Amino acid sequence: MKYLLLIAILFSKSLYAGAPPVDDKPIPPPPYTINNVNQLSIGVEWEYASLENFLDKSFQYSTVLTGGITILNSKNKDNFSPFSGAYAWIDGKDEESGKHIIFSTYGPNKLINKIMNRVYNIDTTLGSNKVTLINNNASARTSIRKKNVLSLSAKMTNECESTRGNMKILNNAKTNSSVNNYLSWSSKKVCKAEVGNINLNGQLKDIKIKNILWAKTYENMTIIFTNPLKLAINNIK
After folding, report:
1. Residue 222 contacts residue 37 (beta carbons within 8 Å)
2. Which of 8, 23, 37, 49 is deepest in the core (most CB within 10 A)?
3. Rounded distance, CA 228 to CA 17, Å?
4. Among candidate residues 115, 124, 60, 120, the one with its CA nearest the CA of residue 93
5. Separation in Å, CA 98 to CA 36, 94, 227
6. Is the dihedral of CA 155, 81, 186, 168 positive or negative?
7. Could you list the residue range(s) of the whole structural domain that residue 58 is in?
8. How many domains would you assign to the chain?
9. For residue 193, what are the contacts with CB-CB under 8 A and spacing of at least 6?
10. Cβ(216)–Cβ(192) below 8 Å
């Protein structure tokens, strides 16, 4: 009996030692401000058939299925660093309808990914994203589990301005707790760009682009993720 008890204790300890650590750190409350962000965004018209599985019957889309892809990252040193993100969206019929996010990844900082999932209820994946703006050339890439799933390139023009804006984002989580994220931003230099390449791989490989509509680069952005319209309270611990 003593031997059986000792074996049981040793077995339970080995299981506990092999288990992943529990992520019980509290989430800071919104809003969240990210500074010194570089971003490359490309607007597109999607091929309808390739997005049928992503469409939400409760969301009002534009007549032509437009949207885009954004990759961004920050070199700032703060609680969210290293911060980066990427997302693809479908436009609503107007600004009030917002943008329907159909794919997103944030990281490699685990806290920002946790915030996106639990506060904004976005079904996002932990990943790593990088944007490089140099000599009027813009390139960006997204990796998930060390595999490239998205890459963009563009040539920056001299049509630049300092500007700001905001947008309403509808989450892509398949739950009953819907969250609207109002995101505001400002940039000291937003430039029109000419698209070079768009490569969609991995989980994005079946999404097809019908037409490229526009491209822009953003330098030294400040992004504020504001209080969500409805908190996913049951998911916050």
Report:
1. yes
2. 37
3. 38
4. 60
5. 25, 7, 16
6. positive
7. 28-235
8. 1
9. 40, 138, 154, 155, 156, 157, 215, 216, 217
10. yes
The structure tokens 């944030």 sit at 106
In a domain, 89, yes or no: yes
Counting every residue written for the chain, the total comes to 237
Tokens of 207: 């999404």
Distance, CA of 230 to CA of 211 (rounded, Å): 35
Assess if residue 20 is contained within a domain.
no
Question: Which amino acid belongs to residue 126?
Answer: L
Residue with structure tokens 């685990």? 110
The encoded tokens of residue 174 equal 């398949």
Calpha distance 123→27 (Å, rounded): 17
4 belongs to a structural domain: no
Q: How far apart are CA 180 and CA 208, in angstroms?
A: 26
Q: Is residue 14 part of a domain?
A: no
- Encode pLDDT of 175-221 as tens digits: 444 556 678 999 999 999 999 999 999 889 999 999 999 999 999 99
**Global pTM?**
0.84
Is the torsion defined by CA of 146, 147, 149, 151 positive or negative? positive
